[in-house]
TrEMBL record:
PROSITE patterns according to UniProt: HTH_ICLR, ICLR_ED
Protein name: IclR family transcriptional regulator
Domain HTH iclR-type as annotated: residue spans: 8-69
Native source species: Arthrobacter koreensis
Gene3D superfamilies, per the entry: 3.30.450.40, Winged helix-like DNA-binding domain superfamily/Winged helix DNA-binding domain
Spans annotated as Disordered: 244-264
Keywords: DNA-binding, Transcription, Transcription regulation
Location of the IclR-ED domain: 70-247
Keyword Transcription regulation: yes
InterPro entries per the UniProt record, alphabetical: GAF-like_dom_sf, HTH_MetabolicPath_Reg, Tscrpt_reg_IclR_C, Tscrpt_reg_IclR_N, WH-like_DNA-bd_sf, WH_DNA-bd_sf
Compositional bias (Gly residues): 255-264
Pfam families according to UniProt: HTH_IclR, IclR_C
Length: 264
């Protein structure tokens, strides 16, 4: 039930407070928190005090606010992402032992790709993906391969939401062609999109219902992709993760029918 002049509920305001923190601003004074959460200063001050008393937020030595340890504790007790990470980790370690750059696991969250685990080696190339961080799905090989293996209506709804986005957002027909090709190939390879010196390569991980539930990917130096070896290794690992999630090998793939990029 809404209980504020703006019409948002207490739960919505708490989520806005918690969501105000990110990798760029892990700590901030209450005035900044109020601005980032879109709340009156008095409301932010009161909510912050209550969340600090519950250990969901904590104060630094300088008096700034940051996310509390209890928030991580509660989230870690029961999480679908945690289960996925636990199943995937041995396979990710195998890939990382060969790639020695970046190996990452991600899921779709709204119109972005959310990274839930990443393994990196010393001296590896730059990587904008961070654990618990997001990227727009259209610039990420992981996001693109997941959307490529999504039902047709999911793809079209995404395109409808972004039909008025200006360049450099890709044209709808271009994205449809890319998704169809990625679906045929079973992988996405994006050289120089996020960083001109790197290439992202990703494959889908299928769940028990035959839908793509995650993406397994790597970020490697551009020009040294070795896709003929990297893609089969990723696909083998992805099948192993799928089996660990309870997916029969015969079911580890899309069930939408109608050819590449199609399905309802």
């Amino acid at each position: 039930m809404a209980n504020s002049p703006s019409g948002d509920s207490m739960a919505e305001r708490i989520v806005r407070v918690i969501s105000a923190f990110d990798a760029e601003r892990p700590a901030m004074p209450v005035a900044t928190l109020a601005r980032r959460a879109g709340l009156p200063l008095s409301t932010a001050h009161r909510l912050a005090g209550e969340l600090v008393s519950l250990a969901l937020l904590q104060r630094t030595d300088s008096g700034e606010l940051r996310l509390g340890l209890r928030l991580w504790e509660l989230a870690s007790r029961s999480s679908a992402a945690l289960d996925l990470r636990q199943v995937a980790m041995p396979f990710m370690e195998d890939i990382q032992a060969v790639i020695r750059q970046h190996t990452q696991l991600s899921v779709l969250q709204e119109d972005e790709v959310l990274f839930i685990e990443r393994l990196s080696s010393r001296g590896s190339v730059s990587n904008f993906a961070k654990v618990a961080g997001r990227l727009p799905l259209h610039i990420s090989s992981s996001g693109m391969v997941l959307m490529a293996h999504s039902p047709r209506h999911v793809q079209e709804e995404f395109l409808d939401r972004h039909q008025s986005d200006p360049p450099p957002f890709p044209a709808a027909d271009s994205l449809r062609r890319q998704w169809a090709e990625m679906r045929r190939e079973g992988c996405a390879t994006l050289p120089g999109v996020v960083d001109p010196d790197t290439t992202g390569i990703a494959v889908p991980v299928f769940g028990p219902q035959g839908s793509a539930v995650a993406a397994l990917g790597v970020v490697v130096p551009r020009g040294k992709e070795n896709t003929s070896a990297t893609v089969p290794a990723l696909m083998t690992a992805a099948r192993g993760i799928s089996r660990g999630l309870g997916t029969d090998s015969a079911e580890a793939g899309p069930r939408y029918g109608g050819g590449a990029g199609a399905g309802d």
